Amino acid sequence: MSDSKAKFHQKIENCLCPPGDGVFTVNTAKERKAALREKLYGQTENVEPLWKASLNTLGDSEHKAAILGISSDCGGGILRGANWGPLFLRSTLLTEQPQVSAFDLGDVRVIPHLLHDKYLNEGTISNCQKALYQDENSEYHVSPLSITEDVCDGFYAHYPEKGIFGIGGDHSISYPLTKAYLKAKREQGKRTAIIHFDAHTDLLVERLGIDLCFGSWCTHILEFLPAPHHLIQFGIRSSGKSKQHWESTFGVKQHWANEIREQGADVIVEQVIKQLKEDKVDELYVSFDIDALDEEFAAATGTPESGGMTPDEAMTILTALSKEFPITGADMMEIAPFTDSSLAGQSSSETTLREGAKLSAFLIDAMNKG
């Protein structure tokens, strides 16, 4: 192993933790954490050495898809709880989609009060480095967005043939995931596009003075795309401004939920494939906010919305795209299992997780083939 790769592996051993451990709690979901450890490692205690040992097999893994959990909802802003997404979605994938397999990097170590290091003063960074790494002069970042981008940069540098499947967390997490992906693909000479499923445009410049959050991340990755219209959005319906405003202001391409419903998902995706081919796009990144689905299917999320896409419509679009273009990066965001904002009661979380797992399984499989 080269010195550079060895240094990267040392970094992920320090900045990440075993799968499901990204949320630091004492008793909440303790049984679910234990069940995940049992399935992954065959034991519930002392799993960290097993996880670290597994990291050394990353280069030899046959899987092109590597899962990374980012248990942060500090960049959210309505109902919190998406920090539990990585733990719960992994568990659902293992039980309901057992045929799907990927390398699991683990979770980013998250201090839940932090978002990005640029918002912190030197004293706070030093204190947090001491807490995370037992070294107040550590070279490592301390905030989830900063750690994620740094880890992903190193991942793509050393494993360019692989891709990361990120599990959030609120949608601000997609900023470092897509930024690292787009930078790496640009260096490889690849033309890319972001396929973004969401009820919301996420095209604010800032929200309450914060420029990186769940409602603004798309705005800040546009500069890393070959062109703004390489951001293609599906399922939009909750917006204070019109489709024309967003497309003319930012140059993106949108397909709102009502258009998909009225014209048919197959018709819409044909238009998108034609656009992507004309733009000579090589590879796709899919960012999926679960609230792109109608609240009937995705109520356990921070901002559920009616009038949304069905899982079948989403799968029709993804299936058609994957037949024409390699999907080499993806994420699933905003599943908040402990929220219950619908009248569906106890089953709302189960339904949201089930549909999120189906879509995640498809994306992971597509990445492994990509």
Describe the 3D structure.
This protein has one domain (3-369): 3-Layer(aba) Sandwich (Arginase, Chain A), CATH 3.40.800. It has 370 residues and is of the alpha/beta class. Helix 6 runs parallel beside helix 7. The protein has helices spanning 3-15, 30-41, 48-55, 85-96, 122-133, 144-158, 174-187, 217-221, 243-250, 257-263, 265-278, 311-324, 347-369; strands spanning 16-17, 65-70, 103-108, 163-168, 192-197, 231-234, 253-255, 283-289, 327-333. The longest helix has 23 residues, at 347-369. The chain is built from 13 helices and nine strands. The model has no long low-confidence stretch (mean pLDDT 94). Strands 1-3-2-4-9-8-5-6-7 form a nine-stranded mixed β-sheet, with helices on both faces.
- Strand/helix succession: HEHHEHEHHEHEHEHEHHEHEH
Cα separation of the termini: 26 Å
Using the coordinates shown, work out and report the CATH topology: Arginase, Chain A
| Average pLDDT, all residues | 94
Shape annotation: globular
- Indicate the proportion of strand residues: 5-15%
Structural class, by secondary structure, is alpha/beta
Number of E-type strands: 9
In the predicted model, the low-confidence regions spanning at least 5 consecutive residues are none
CATH superfamily: Ureohydrolase domain
| CATH architecture label | 3-Layer(aba) Sandwich
**CA-based gyration radius:** 19 Å
SS element count, helices: 13
CATH hierarchy, class: Alpha Beta
Strand order of the largest sheet: 1-3-2-4-9-8-5-6-7
Tally of distinct domains: 1
Question: Major sheet: size, sense and barrel closure?
Answer: 9 strands, mixed
